[in-house]
Write a structure and sequence with these properties.
Helix content is about 55%, strand content about 5%. It has about 375 residues and is α/β, with parallel strands linked by helices. The protein folds into two domains: about 220 residues, Hypothetical protein af1432 (Orthogonal Bundle), CATH 1.10.3210.10; about 110 residues, Response regulator (Rossmann fold), CATH 3.40.50. Strand 3, helix 5 and strand 4 form a beta-alpha-beta unit. It has a five-stranded parallel sheet with strand order 2-1-3-4-5, with helices on both faces. It is built from 18 helices and five strands. Helix 9 packs across helix 15 and helix 13 packs antiparallel against helix 14. Pfam families: HD_5. InterPro entries: CheY-like_superfamily, Cyclic_di-GMP/3'3'-cGAMP_PDE, HD/PDEase_dom, HD_GYP_dom, HDIG_dom, Sig_transdc_resp-reg_receiver.
């Protein structure tokens, strides 16, 4: 069977990639298990929101309640590391403290108290409250009060999560450095990434893709070739057409790139696009031979943008074709190589817009 100009870049080898398919899920589960969960009780909406924002900024997972009844419902259904809340105003019988300590004796209890009611604070501590936070204190001091009341196990989780968050940030910086290194090896790869990202975003916007999904699509498009950092120069920079064996090794870049991105929390969504950006609608792509809507939407959009740029760019072994001819070829491959619905969107973009995007991304 003759392969199209677009499809010559998307021919599938047989890779054993079963170990990569559930990596992102395992990373998600491991990261969420580090959350420190705080239950907050505050009847005043404005104050409750302010306290929750402060705690979230400190890295805590915060669940809010406006009534004691709701507190008991939440505690019956899930596990918390600490409770922070206000008794009835003015506090009298300390029923909330007594009931919480009776049913959840190991749950740390921080009492929110107005300065005007400090006279009952000592009584509250005798009834089982572990600590106090005076609401006239700066909210920035709340995190310190919470941390000193956490169990050793919760504190360990918190510190581990903080450390991993720092690693995530540094991981993105490392990938940026790798992209720069890759650009120094192969200038065309950098220019191609910028153009294909612009094309991908154009199509995604016309499909009204959500902002959350757009975040991952944009990063996936930009990083799609990051795995080429692991491809030898004699293959990556070869001025003539690749042999079958060389093409098989080159195609490993999608798996290499996935493994690089999937370990960074903020890039997990992008990692799936990096892994599957050479899949084909009819299942003839790589690395997993996914078919139809089993291919992530971002990868399906990207595949068209990638082919469009590949066909309209010069290669040492062939000349670029015109933009109309490239779009004609994409239309011909609709339903085989490409998602037919996304092809329709791509064909609806005026030629002048494609030319504008190419010019801007190349300058």
């Amino acid at each position: 069977m003759r392969h199209s100009n677009a499809q010559q870049f998307l021919i599938a080898p047989a890779f054993d990639t079963s170990s990569t398919q559930d990596l992102a899920l395992r990373v998600d589960e491991a990261y969420s298990s580090l959350e420190v969960n705080v239950l907050l009780l505050e009847p005043n909406d404005q104050l409750r929101e302010a306290l929750a924002v402060q705690l979230a900024a400190e890295g805590y997972q915060v669940i809010c309640a406006a009534t004691a009844h709701r507190v008991f419902e939440l505690l019956a259904g899930q596990s918390f590391d600490l409770f922070i809340g206000k008794e009835e105003t003015p506090p009298r019988s300390h029923e909330l403290i007594l009931e919480l300590k009776k049913r959840w004796p190991h749950l740390p209890f921080i009492l929110l108290v107005e300065r005007a009611h400090l006279h009952v604070a000592q009584q509250a501590l005798r009834h089982g409250a572990d600590d106090l936070f005076i609401l006239s204190q700066p909210l920035e001091e709340l995190g310190e009060v919470v941390e000193r009341n956490l169990s050793q196990e919760a504190l360990t989780r918190r510190r581990t999560k903080r450390y991993r968050t720092m690693l995530q940030a540094s991981g993105e910086a490392v990938l940026d450095a790798m992209l720069t290194a890759l650009a120094l090896r192969d200038v065309e790869t950098e220019e191609h990434s910028l153009r294909v990202t612009a094309y991908t975003i154009e199509i995604a916007e016309r499909m009204a893709v959500s902002q959350a999904e757009m975040y991952h699509i944009e990063r996936g498009a930009l990083l799609h070739d990051i795995g080429k950092i692991g491809i030898p120069d004699q293959i990556l920079l070869k001025p003539t057409k690749l042999t079958s064996e060389e093409r098989r090794k080159m195609q490993a870049h999608s798996i290499i790139g996935y493994n690089m991105c999937a370990r960074i929390e903020s890039l997990r969504g992008a990692a799936r696009i990096v892994l599957h950006h050479h899949e084909a609608w009819d299942g003839s792509g790589y690395p997993h031979g996914l078919r139809g809507e089993a291919i992530p939407i971002g990868s399906r959009i990207f595949a068209i943008a990638d082919a469009l740029d590949a066909m309209t760019s010069n290669r040492p072994y062939r000349r670029a074709c015109s933009l109309p001819n490239a779009l004609e070829e994409i239309e011909r491959c609709s339903g085989s190589q490409f998602d037919p619905n996304i092809v329709k969107v791509a064909l609806s973009v005026p030629l002048g817009r494609w030319e504008q995007l190419r010019h801007v991304a190349s300058t």
